[in-house]
Amino acid sequence: MFALRVVKSSVGCSAALYRSSPGVKASLKCTRSPCSLQAAGARYISAYGYTQAKVLTYSKYGEPKDVLQLHKHSIPAPTGTQVNLRLLAAPINPADVNQIQGVYPSKPPFETTLGTPEPSAIGGNEGAFEVTSTGSNVTNLSTGDWVVMKRTGQGTWRTHAQLDESQLIKVDKEGLSPLQVGTVSVNPVTAYRMIKDFCNWDWIRSGEEWLIQNGANSGVGRAAIQLARVWGINTLNVIRERENPKETEALKKDLLDLGATAVITEAELLSGDFRAIVHKLTKEGKQPIRLALNCVGGKNASAMAKALAPDSHLVTYGAMAKQPVALPSGLLIFKNLVFAGFWVSRWGDKNPQLKENTIRDIFDLTRNGKFKDIPVQEVKWTWDKDYSELVQEVQGTLTGYRGGKSIFVFEE
Ligand SMILES: NC(=O)c1ccc[n+]([C@@H]2O[C@H](COP(=O)([O-])OP(=O)(O)OC[C@H]3O[C@@H](n4cnc5c(N)ncnc54)[C@H](OP(=O)(O)O)[C@@H]3O)[C@@H](O)[C@H]2O)c1
User: Fold this and answer.
1) How do residues 209-232 score in pLDDT, each as one tens digit?
2) Distance (Å, rounded) from C-alpha 21 to C-alpha 200?
3) From the candidate CATH numbers 3.40.50.150, 3.30.450.40, 3.10.129.10, 3.40.50.720, the one assigned to the domain spanning 187-346
4) Could you tell me the distance, in angstroms and rounded to a whole number, from the CA of residue 219 to the centre of ligand 1?
5) pLDDT for position 328
6) Residue 128 in contact with residue 171, Cβ under 8 Å?
7) Which of 32, 194, 313, 372 is 20–30 Å from 186 (CA)?
8) Which atom of ligand 1 is nearest to the CA of 104?
9) Which CATH number fits domain 49-183+373-411: 2.60.40.10, 3.90.180.10, 1.20.1600.10, 3.40.190.10?
10) pTM score of the predicted model
């Protein structure tokens, strides 16, 4: 027998019932906003355990405010190895915005599976989800477990999702918050791998070697500061000046409290004093700077390269200034510097098990109080949240100085 409770709409809602195989698969699609079903108070349509979900999608590239849509759809009960999830927390990273703009190399395919009017992709690349139900062949996950997505590009800006068990990494949630779990996969993993994989640190010289980084206040930068401190590596951190000296000093102090060895401004990096600053910090050059992490590009990156010891790497992972990195020839010829790039998405796809191990390692540090949360601005995503408020948060991600990364936190 097939039974559905349908709420009649008085305003001509476009919701329609679909049944693809008798008695089993049905879904309710509604692309109208505000949906009259919701207006009628029918948040959950109870038909074989269907869950209503909202998702931020885009069907073409452009500015988030122009192309993002809030789409409502329903998710059936999971079968086989499927797992139903609800969102706990998902950040808005700069790369997520670049992806929507169409200027990011990885482009999730536009698909029709959600029933959007045009094929679409879902925004967001990382987040923490809770398992709400599992199909009968799921072996490693149970209701109440927390998971993160194995790969980027699977779409995390959604209140609920249905994925295959194989697409998920189970998280031991003991001692962790949704924020910590939801923000682990991109920034901390990037910082961790760049520090570990691009330099053969001399562990006997713990506390006597350095890394230098710009964008030190970014999610990656803050993670690098903390991991380097745990591993006995000094950090010289470059930040952008704030609007007044007091705010700049407050940010410096914030990063020093986090474990930075030294913090300078971009102006100091580019000034004639920079050599002297480095000389003093590194005990007259006896302590080598063996790695540079470049989040910014332009002159900023070239200046950092000049401080590197011979045979070191400068690893570019971001391009926040949108300026190319100019490589002084002398540094290549006489110092044998290596200029490399790192992209966590590609690395993670090639090294899935190592990615899981890296995440677990970071969680252990978090539980031990050695790895702290990034500053965030929580954006509560309630069922009735206005579409424009969600989109505005995404649009604002690449503008000006921000008090913290915006993160969607779903509240049922
Ligand atoms: N390659 C990879 O695998 C990978 C992984 C993660 C992130 N990323 C990239 O790393 C960058 C940072 O990402 P995130 O998530 O860590 O960012 P985030 O936490 O949102 O922070 C953005 C950072 O960029 C800085 N910034 C913004 N505009 C700038 C400009 N014009 N000049 C200099 N600095 C500027 C900000 O400085 P203020 O603090 O002064 O505002 C802030 O520190 C992005 O480009 C992102 O795409 C790459």
Assistant:
1) 999 999 999 999 999 999 999 999
2) 58
3) 3.40.50.720
4) 7
5) 87
6) yes
7) 313
8) 47
9) 3.90.180.10
10) 0.88
